[in-house]
Amino acid sequence: MTNHGAAAIFAIMIAVGIPLWDHHVSAETNVEDTLRVVLASLIGVAVTAAVEVAFVRMKPGDDIVLPVAERLAAVQSLLTGCFEDRPVDREVEKIARLAMLETSTLRSALRRSDYSPEYTAQMSGVVALVGRLTDIAATLTQLSFEFSATGQKQLRNLAATVARIRTDLMNRQIPESIHFNPDDEPLRGVTCCARWRK
User: Fold this and answer.
1) Dihedral angle at the C-alpha atoms of 43, 45, 50, 55, nearest 10 degrees?
2) Range 63-72 average pLDDT
3) What DSSP character marks residue 186?
4) Does this model's pTM top 0.70?
5) Are the C-beta atoms of residues 75 and 95 closer than 8 Å to each other?
């Protein structure tokens, strides 16, 4: 048989049914034993379905979009902490962990998936770009910035843009084009930050 799932179910039914019905007992006992096996099977199916539904509700989305969205959320949280000038130790730890995980798992999941070639190509680009963004954010955690008003505005805009891209990805939409003002002054005052280092 080419359908391995059907073959396995057929084999299980034979392995359970023949010994069960081959006993020299009354018909009533045979029916009771059969109903017990059916009840045990139904309980197993119900528990499996409940676990699947619980995991789908806890983490809506698929195995590609969620890790990408998690990386974008971590970068956004780090940028928000920087322009609000609050401690970002937790964000730094998360960014470092995500940077160590890299994106090879996501790329291999895309290669094994049955998505359309167009979607696979698009998401491969997204995975590569978000992986690079995570690496840059991990590098930035070793630095400290003294922001001017313009610098804070740039960081706020960048965090809002990352949040918008994340929202679009979660909603399965193509993110809008990103426009930055080339006349804005660059960020200055970058120094090594010992308090963020491990």
Assistant:
1) 140
2) 85
3) P
4) no
5) yes
